[in-house]
């Protein structure tokens, strides 16, 4: 495995310092002693900044939401889409593999309770 690519319905963005979001289609993967190193580069279309980031994925859960936004795009009725923003963007090594997920809190309409779900961020390997 050299690379992971994010597929529909998930969309991943790096938050640029200029407040734009830059889409991240995939990340390079390198095996490390403690887990994996994910790295990616992107160029901000608004300010031109070259972004270079790397994430260490280990057995310990880490939250990358300070600089990454993750969205799940759901088909809705007719011509509409519903977009869910994950509150957290977390990664860890699980069973030797890269496990990416996020928390998503939403209001249940039928009883007005806040429900906390975990959404697994799917990716494909190449
Ligand atoms: Zn920018």
Description:
- The protein is mostly beta strands and 126 residues long.
- It has one domain (3-125).
- Helices cover 0% and strands 61% of the residues.
- The protein contains no helices and 13 strands.
- Strand 4 and strand 5 (36-43) form a beta hairpin.
- The model has no long low-confidence stretch (mean pLDDT 95).
- Bound molecules: zinc ion.
- Zinc ion is lined by residues 16, 18, 20, 44, 46-47, 49.
List its traits:
binds zinc ion; four-stranded antiparallel β-sheet; 126 residues; 13 strands; globular; mainly beta
Describe the structure in brief.
By secondary structure, the chain is mainly β. 0% of the residues lie in helices and 61% in strands.
List the helices and strands and how they pair.
Elements: E1 3-6, E2 10-15, E3 21-24, E4 26-31, E5 36-43, E6 50-57, E7 62-63, E8 68-75, E9 81-85, E10 90-94, E11 97-107, E12 114-120, E13 123-125
Antiparallel strand pairs: 1-4, 1-13, 2-3, 2-8, 4-5, 5-6, 7-10, 8-9, 10-11, 11-12
> What's the number of helices?
0
Biggest sheet overview? 5 strands, antiparallel
Strand line-up across the major sheet? 6-5-4-1-13
The portion of residues assigned to helices is under 10%
Average per-residue pLDDT, rounded, comes to 95
**Oligomer class:** single chain
Low-confidence stretches at least 5 residues in length (pLDDT < 50)?
none
Number of extended strands: 13
Task: Specify Rg, calculated over alpha carbons.
Answer: 16 Å
What best-fitting shape do the alpha-carbon axes yield?
Answer: globular
The proportion of strand residues reads over 45%
| Bound small-molecule species | zinc ion
SSE order in H/E notation?
A: EEEEEEEEEEEEE
First-residue to last-residue Cα separation: 6 Å
Q: Give the count of structural domains.
A: 1
Q: Which secondary-structure class do the elements indicate?
A: mainly beta
């Amino acid at each position: 495995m050299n690379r992971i690519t994010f597929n529909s319905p998930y969309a991943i963005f790096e938050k640029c310092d200029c407040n734009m979001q830059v889409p991240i289609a995939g990340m390079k993967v390198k095996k490390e002693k403690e887990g994996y190193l994910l790295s990616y580069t992107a160029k901000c279309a608004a300010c031109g900044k070259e972004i270079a980031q790397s994430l260490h994925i280990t057995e310990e859960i880490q939250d990358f939401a300070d600089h990454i936004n993750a969205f799940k795009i759901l088909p809705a009725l007719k011509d509409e889409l519903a977009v869910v923003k994950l509150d957290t963007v977390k990664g860890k090594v699980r069973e030797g593999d890269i496990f990416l997920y996020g928390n998503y809190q939403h209001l249940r309409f039928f009883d007005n309770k806040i429900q906390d779900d975990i959404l697994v961020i799917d990716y494909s390997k190449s």
